[in-house]
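Dear support,

I submitted the protein below through the web form. The confirmation email said the job was done, but the results page showed an empty box. After a refresh the structure appeared. I'm attaching both so you can tell me whether what I see now is the final result or a partial one.
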Amino acid sequence: MAEPAILHIDMDAFYASVEVLDDPDLAGKPVIVGGRPNTRGVVSAASYEAREFGVRSAMPLVRAARLCPRGVYLPVRMDRYVEISESIFDIFREYTPLVQGLSLDEAFLDVRGSTRLFGEGPEIGAEIRRRIAEEIGLPCSVGVAPVKFVAKIASDFDKPNGFVVVKEGEVGKFLDPLPIERLWGVGEVTAQRLRHFGITTVGQIRESGATFLDENLGEAGRHLHRLSNGRDEREVVPDWRRKSVGHETTFYEDIDDRETLLGVLLDLTDEVARRARKGDHRGRVVTIKIRYAPFETHTSQTRLDNATNTFDEIWTAARELFERNVRVPPRKVRLLGVSISALDASRSRQLGLFDGERHERAGRVEAAMDEILDRMGKGIIRRAAAPRHRKSSGLNRESGPGPDSGGDGTDFG
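What the results page shows now:
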């Protein structure tokens, strides 16, 4: 029987670990990345020392400050995290071209075609983990399994700095005692339904049978039955061409205040525009993503006349989508995100008679801001909202939530 050859590699408390790497005096201290305490932002990452106080990613900074008043609160330095991430992914690609990044700090690797050169999957996983520690100076956790979802669960099983191998014949033994929430697709609503039938572990899902699950949960039940038996047909698919640039955050506590949400949307948009400019991406479609409590997700989008990467144009579209579509209050929001897509690499744009000078001036201003931030860090400049939303304009750029579902988001490792 061949050794498992699907790897999931997840950096441990990535943003916080990078801060400790750059400032060793922070070692052993509760490091909280996201911005100044008692502001409206959220925690992007918390070191394991901070987690002992109850601080978690996506928690409001106000709550984090109450739980850990003596923590070291630092601004998000996204460019530095991207730089380190690129070095990590360079190591991944030395072993296989089949690297599917999920975010800056985690990826799936399919090393089935690499075993003749580098050894079996567990050997490759161990070597990559060692190299990241020695060459970059950061800890990571590695899961090795026959399929993707088992590898991902394995990488999270013994954090931090964990290494878990699940062989083909051991998948059932590994999965059976785990709580049902460990399976992809089991949110609070599905978990409640399963618990109603006395099902609390993955093994009980498997034992309940496909027919029972189909009758009571439909396609979701069939999906869970496949996972409980260790079946996951999805391949590791590298995506060499970026399709969108996005940024989203899941809140630790559900939010029903529109001005607070607009402030977070402002920071998200600012980060999307900045990363788009850095990658020379321009998008024609602006999308906002809202997840209401508990797990009801909606997206709305609008198409622009021209592809853009300027904050003002993206923010105008995102704010209008928010005002038109977000039902808060009375609804509460768990997740908020913004992205641009339909990317256009062309530098040309069709401009109206008076648009050219204005657009060129906006581009010069944002380029100057990017240069200042690159040199001095994100805490140096604040982005003010439009006058009608002046209440949310005090949000500091440094407190923007972490990266997006496409790959650059809040650090949950």
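Response: this is the final, complete result; the empty box was a page-load delay. Confidence is low (pLDDT under 50) at residues 378-382, 385-410.
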